[in-house]
Batch of 3 targets.
Target 1
Amino acid sequence: MVSQKTRTTTSTPMPISIGGDGEEDGDTATRAWLTRLVVVAVVLSALNLRPAIISVGALLEEVRDGVGMSGTTAGVLTSVPAVCFALFGALAPRLARRFGVGAVVCGGMAAIAAGLAIRPYTGTTAGFLAASALALMGIAVGNVLMPVVVKRWFPDRVGPMTGLYSMALALGTGTAAAVTVPMTEALGGSWRAGLTVWAVLAAVAVLPWIPLLRDRGAHDARDPERGAPPARGTSAPEPGAGALRVTRSRTAWALAVFFGLQATAAYITMGWMAQIFRDAGVPAGTAGLLLAVTMAMGVPLAFVIPRFATRLPHQGPIVVALGLCGLIGYAGLYLAPAGGAWAWAVLLGIANCAFPLALTMVGMRARTGAGVAQLSAFAQSTGYLISVPGPLLVGVLYQHSGGWGLPLALMAGLMVPQMVAGVLAGRARTVEDEAAATR
């Protein structure tokens, strides 16, 4: 006699199946295989979310000469990523609702690969910028939807999975910064080959998403709003399906401001820290190494901080600790930039780990997959818009003041509202509850 068995649990959800033990065991094995595939897909995708940006910075002089790019356009190029992240990231939930999360992320990885493969050979500044925008579009949807993937597939492991994703992202960033120039030299000195090779990594990231394309929610994790996962043959609602007004949530606004100010600090650090050290008399090679140390701090800490954050009812203490590291680092750069260079590089690297903390809070401040999708899109799109003026303003202050006093004062000053916004965003509440309370 055929029996019907269902399992419910408060931790890792299992798909509901109707049939005998053998059939249920098969479903469990399929679920385990798909879960491992999602882990691989997330890691490979995260590795590809920054090399498209970092590799251009490493070869910017060669790119300018190769496509006839003016100095003004090159300056604008440094702000294009944040603008694209804001614009294209806002579209991610709508695309995910229409095509499915896996399909959109897969398409995003394909867009990165295509953009990176095309742009070195366009031959014009306009073509280079257009191909870069294509790659950045793929990065933008990946930025927004990775927290959604984590929330839906690993609801009881948001911290560890966000840490793994953040660590892979930091590893991709550091690797691109460290190997782009040597790899270009090994490929005969062609900057086109040095940039194109990153398209291969993006193409590899497409592969693990392909088996998930037809899996539009049948194996999604439990949605706390909807109970158990759907039975086989049905599909779960995609992100963005709800009527959530995320802009009515104070926590959403706090998280958006926190995300934007930490992104501002990160872009300023990546763009200007090496120059600060060089102006203080540190050799160019050492200044580059100091910047690499700052970026490398994100690899281990990006894995540790999210795990720790999910165990706390309030993430405010972590926000304050990271902010204090940033304030001490900026003070050190002003008082003794060369004498304590290594200490300041480490402290600023710790401060920059506000990024994985922000991603973790995105997953914690929404109760449903749809809520995470909308909160992620809102916080990141708004945040990246906030971050656009920062690096440009630092350059203006540096040029007109002739020193680093005013720029460093600006950096330190921005750290204070970042800490305030982060403390507010770290409170144990959800955007769904806040939005409902304002109706």
Target 2
Amino acid sequence: MAAFFTLINVKYLKLPSTIGLMILALGFSLLIVFGEILFRQLRELSTDMMNQFKFTEVLFQVMLSFLLFAGALEMNLKKLGEEKWPILVLATVGVLISTFIVGTAVFYALPIVDIHINYIHCLLFGALISPTDPIAVLAMIKKTPVSKNLESQIAGESLFNDGVGVVVFLSILAIAANGVENIEPVMILKLFGVEVLGGLLLGALIGAFGLYLLKIIDNTHTEIEVLVTLSMVLGGASIAKYLHLSGPLAMVVMGLWVGREGRQDKDAAGEYVYKFWHLMDEAMNAILFILIGLQIIRIAEELGNQSMIFFFAIPISIVIVLISRFLGVGLPITVMRTMRNFPKYTVRILTWSGLRGGISVALALSLYEATEEGFLMPSYDSNIITAMTYGVVLFSIVVQGLTVKKLFDKYNKVNSGKGMPKSAAVEASE
């Protein structure tokens, strides 16, 4: 299906692959959902297929590991180092600000359309929707001309904030499951510290060892180099899961260790290693966005007759998430402007380019799995969270993804002279 839809997109739609595949898969899903009389057997087949595996597990344990490693492999380590403070602040403080603004705003806004949901569950929605999706963001960045400094900020933030966002989500989930009175701040700090710092340390250890092996091989056996990098990703993901560490952060650090951009020993891994991971990145991306599009079938099954009621909440959630993203980015950058210069339109660019994707969908669907495992969450609340999440994801990938290039063009035009570092201005004009 990914191959067929990609062919249609390349031949006829000619849209960015992420957006084109999402639109085609969504259209296919809606055809099945609303054409039930004509496609009853096809809907049953699709539902069975989507229920045979846990989307959350497939994404976090397999696809995300491959995609994050491949994405980090192409990052410029030197440029990332130059933008380390904006990336660090946006990936932590920005996510926390957005989480609480989204949760609080949704709690007070939904009663307007006669939808009521617990505050702690609103915070869960804020936590799962606040991190930008590195897969969608990296796919967009590759197709958009922008200065290397801004590219590093956008891509670097998206690579690191999903790991932080997952930890924030798990912390709020623990509070919701056990009650605020049974949770001590030390427990949250311990969870955050072990997950985040442990993930970074694991990635550094495996990345350093993997790079050492690649230098020993010295490009003489391409197949061994590919197997070493595959072992790093699959083994690292398994170890992170076993030790309850942040797998996404480990993958990012490993990719940065092995990647050649911005490093002196650029030839540690042969050219075919990078070609292999580029191929994996493109193929996994195609399959992932087909899966996200097909999730509408499963979500429609979960929502049942409540579907139309919950769609009133989607426009509200889209507006709230955009405003929260603007504040989550704008407030930290306003403070950091006292220490360094940021080009014009930086806040607008970071706001509009903050796409959401498979990670948010996976976390929303994980609430059903958590309920099955003993987390007592009303099905009404989990249904509304899922509907809002899917609505925001679709809007960000299709609408924001299709229009962000105009904003980038305006950014490049305004900052091609004053307001940008000389190197960035040259890159933008090119």
Target 3
Amino acid sequence: MPLSKSAPSDTEQYYMATQWQLMWRKLKRHRLALVGMVMLSVIYGSAILADFLAPYEIYKRHTAYIYCPPQRIHLIDAEGQFHFRPFVYGWKTRRDPVTYERLYEEDVSAIYPIRFLHEGEPYKFWGLIPTRIHLSGVDEPGVFFIFGTDHLGRDVFSRILMAARISLSIGLIGVALSFLLGCFLGGISGYYGGPLDTFIQRLIEFLLSIPTIPLWMALAAAVPPDWPPIQVYLMITVILSIVGWCGLARVVRGKLISLRTEDYVLAATIAGASDGRIIRRHLLPGFMSYLIVNLTLAIPTMILGETALSFLGLGLQPPTVSWGVLLSVAQDVKVVIMYPWILIPGVFVVITVLAFNFLGDGLRDAADPYH
């Protein structure tokens, strides 16, 4: 009589699970890490679909609505009547008799329902697919500024969505470059040792001894002002990666020094494996969990670096849009006091950095699943 195969118990599943399965099981119990993962999914998804989500083209100027405040979305009108479709009011403008500032008041007689999958301004989705469909919008002559407008009457919400593509991608590309440099130079330094190790370590010490922000500012100031935006974007990414690899390279070196005498490394050497294959296939995977955590925590640093450089006018320049470029108009205290919605891009920077830190903390705990 054949023996029936019973399903493995929870204890058996735990000891039979792979390293990645154990990490995922522990990560799912870290609530803040899951919150950070969801937040990042929403932010990066919004950046990918920015053309569709943005009500207006980022360079479109509404000259009648300079520094227009954010519009409130209503379901109940001034007469107390409930509307199933959310709506916004139109604007009435007047001049302050003392400061001559343009003041905006809601015109309760002009109701503009918010229409979803609205046919608005034409655009090309990711520069490829021509369409006029936007997620939301209102019919003309109404306007839809949920985050207000800037000093040229451009919709802040649309510009934040499009700027996310630059700011978030700089973080990913910059970390990818620093990750490759750190693993390559740290691997060579730790595996071979000798004069090469001494040279690489002295180079790392020299780079780490230079204050980060002044170094970034000096390198960014050296970028020719007549370069096109794409070249400036790539150069800023390289600048942010110059110092980012140093800490990772030191950790990789220390790990390789401790692992290069293990039995499985000696076996691979005797089997005729090349040095590059030993480092890539046997040594680096031995602490891959740490490398993943390092990647997660390094991306916010890159995003903050780009934001700081662009805010100071040394990074990306208009007409290129990034969160730092959008925040550069907030250097005037008077503007911040009178038009505080100009600081909204900074809120997205803070949320993104916090989300990465939450996820990084969870990955750090999950990297040791037996703890």
